[in-house]
Amino acid sequence: MRTKFEMAALSPNPAMQDLKLTFQLSTLVFPAQQTDDHKTLFLSNIDQSLNFNVQILYFFSPNPDFPPDTVVTRLKLAVEKVLVPYDFMAGRLKWNHHSARLDLHCNAAGAGFMAASSTFSLDEIGDLVCPNPGFRQLVVQTLNNLEDEDQPLCVFQVTSFKCGGFAIGVSLNHILLDGLAGRMFLENLASQAFEDKPLAIIPCHNRRLLAARSPPLISFPHPELLKPQFPVLGRPVSGSEKELDFKVFKISSSDVNFLKAMVAKQAAADNATAVKITSFNVMAALIWRCRALSLCDVEGNKDRVFTMCYAVDLRSRLNPPLPPEYCGNAILPAYASAKCRDIEKWPLLKLVEMISEGIERLSDEYVKSAIDWLEINKGIPYGDCVLTSWLRLGLNEVVFPWGKSLYCCHVVNNLERLCWMFPYVDGVNILIQRPAEEMERFQFHLLNLIVA
Q1: What is the C-alpha to C-alpha distance for residues 174 and 154, in angstroms, rounded to an integer?
Q2: What protein family is recorded (predicted)?
Q3: I need a labelling partner for 266 at 20 to 30 A (CA). Which of 86, 92, 136, 444 fits?
Q4: Could you count the other beta carbons within 10 Å of the beta carbon of residue 40?
Q5: What whole-number distance in Å separates Cα of residue 84 and Cα of residue 90?
Q6: What is the set of domains in the chain, with CATH numbers?
């Protein structure tokens, strides 16, 4: 048995649930130049299925050249400028009864912009890696004085701390952008916060590149997609009403390498030389096993099938490939599925192999079949666990005039099936949000695997 391990589990700090904010500014901001406010942007079937908000949070150390008031002014101007090439982000979603689809009206109705201050310092908040529900206060999603149909699709917030440090929160409806497009948008936003920089990347707004075929042709089964009993398109995805625990599991690079070496040893013994033993595949297999076994412990049904879904970028998988600067959602879920009793007894190698096969399954024809399935069935991605990886997004590498962030993270929500994997200085962080009993069992199984 391995006795030295470096995994740590971080829980929210109860003392930091209320960050004691005072808001100085809550307003709409508009494109800096005239845009075509009668334009309607086509949304792909993938876009249509992702109607929920994602929150990104950047923390910055104090910078004497950029006090928080200056940051507010510069960022507000940057948002106004970037809303010209990204005019759809100042638009509003409207349900088209004729086509039974959401349309994105580029009507220049505005994006949200907030400025606030906290009575705490960054040091008093403590470890920024902790999955603190209080951080939701740093990424406001709605403006108080607007009706639901008038709410902006994206909101930007600057919050200053008494030490001179500050946070920038960005809330985006996922319909607008996927992770890679979001990274490109943030690079462009940062470029416009400088006084004399052009856009970092020219976005490609042609979402019809991912339109369904006519007529649609479903050539594969798609268990990773669900046709709901009642129509859900056009409605925001709602979170769980259960009380959830939030934890970040810090897996050190030595623990990741230990697991990869363990899988490589199993592969060598089985002469399974084709298995791709990447950090993502191994960590996804680890999460799959621990989530399946923890749910099995609670439900007591080892014959239950547990499906793991994980987002895969499609840009290079299509023929011809999408432009790298494609601006929209070019992701679909890969999946791996098995009974809990098999997930428990199989070696980790088998699970890694199935995770890898799920990614390889996403060929050009498979992707087009999935898009056509969504066209006919008006469904949504679905799995018992849905994993999103930020390992290669590089969100923490975005350079603003005031420098790179001290820390960049996702903000916890109540979408209990979702979990996230993101990098930290020496390893991988895993954010899990589950009911307390299941979270306890997840941690038990995770620890058992790492020290096995």
Answers
A1: 10
A2: Belongs to the plant acyltransferase family.
A3: 444
A4: 15
A5: 9
A6: 13-210 (3.30.559.10), 223-451 (3.30.559.10)
